[in-house]
Amino acid sequence: LSDLTDRETWNDPAVQSCAGLIDNAQSIAVLTGAGVSAESGIPTFRDALTGLWARFDPTQLATPEAFAADPALVTRWYDERRVACARCRANAGHLALAELERRSKAAGCRFRLITQNVDRLHQLAGSSDVVELHGSLWDWRCTHCGEQREERAVPFAEYPPRCHCGGPRRPGVVWFGEPLPSEAIAAAWAAAEDCDLFLSIGTSGQVEPAASLARVAAQTGARLVEINPQPTTQSDVVDLVMRGPSGALLPLVLA
Ligand code: BV8
Ligand code: ZN
C-alpha cells in the first residue's frame, strides 16, 4: 500500500465530496468486503494467499461438497483462519464505520452496515446490527443435531470439531452453492432499496448475490461511492471513486 500513501492518489476532492454526500444523506447503506479487513492483517480472497490458501482455491474449499468429502481438511482450513483472526484487531476503517453509524443515527439518518466478511471485526469495532450476508467464522453448527454456538477458543483440539452429540461441527458460514440466510438477504435488499447513499468498500464485487446490491441501490436512485485501491465490477456504476485503502480514507472522510 506504500504507493497509495502520497496524498495526490487519494484525490482529496473525492474525500470532500464523499463527506458532503454523507452530510446530506437521509439513508445510508454500506457494503463491505474482505478489503476492509486487509489492514487488520486478514488476507483477502484474491490476494496472494498464505497457508492452506496458497494450495487451495477458496471456492474449492468453501463448499458443502468439500466438507462432505474431507471434513477434517475443511475444518482445519477454517481453524487456521480463526487462529489468524483471533490475533487481529479492528482497523481505523472498521472504527470509522462504527463512528459513521453513531453520527448517522444521531442525525436522524437511517444507516445499515452489510458485510460479506465472516471475521466479525465490525462488531469488535462497535458497529451494531451488522447484516452478515455470509455468516461468521466464529459460529459453529453441529451437522447432526443442528446446535449452533459461537466458539472463540483457538485452536480446535480435533478436526472436525465434535458436538456433545458426537456429530461433526461445521463453520456457520455460507458456502458457495448455499443460499444466504433469508433474513440477511431481505435486510440487505431493503437497505439497498431504501438508501440514497450506497458505499461499496473493499469488495471486488465478484460474488453473487451480494454484488447485485450496488445495482439495486443505483436503480432506486441512490448515489454510489466506491472505496477501493483497485477498480471493481461496480466501478462503472458508481458516482464517486476513492482509489485508496479504506483504513486511511474513511477516517479522512469523517474528519
Ligand atoms: C448462492 C463465506 C444460490 C465462506 C463466502 C457463476 C456466475 C455467477 C455466480 C455464480 C456462478 N457460479 C456460482 C455462482 C454463485 C456463487 C458465486 O457468486 N460464485 C462466484 C465465485 C462466481 N454464489 C454463491 O454460491 C452464493 N450462494 O448463489 O446460492 C442458491 C439459492 C437458493 C438455493 C440454493 C442455492 C453464496 C456465496 C457466498 C460464499 N461465501 N464467504 C468463507 O469465507 O470461507 S464468499 C467470500 O468471498 C467472502 O464472503 C466474499 O463475499 C467473497 C470475497 O469477495 P470480497 O469480499 O470482494 O473479497 P476479494 O478478495 O474478492 O476482494 C477484496 C477487495 O478488497 C479487492 O477489490 C481489493 O482491491 C480490495 N482491497 C484490498 N485492500 C484494501 C481493499 N479495499 C479497501 N482497503 C484496502 N486496504
Ligand atoms: Zn450435535
UniProtKB/TrEMBL annotation:
Active site per UniProt: 134 (proton acceptor)
E.C. number: 2.3.1.286
Chief place where the protein resides: cytoplasm
Pfam family, one: SIR2
Cofactor-binding details, from the entry: Binds 1 zinc ion per subunit.
Annotated SUPFAM superfamilies: DHS-like NAD/FAD-binding domain
Keyword field: Cytoplasm, Metal-binding, NAD, Transferase, Zinc
Protein name: NAD-dependent protein deacylase
Organism (species): Thioflavicoccus mobilis 8321
GN (gene name): cobB
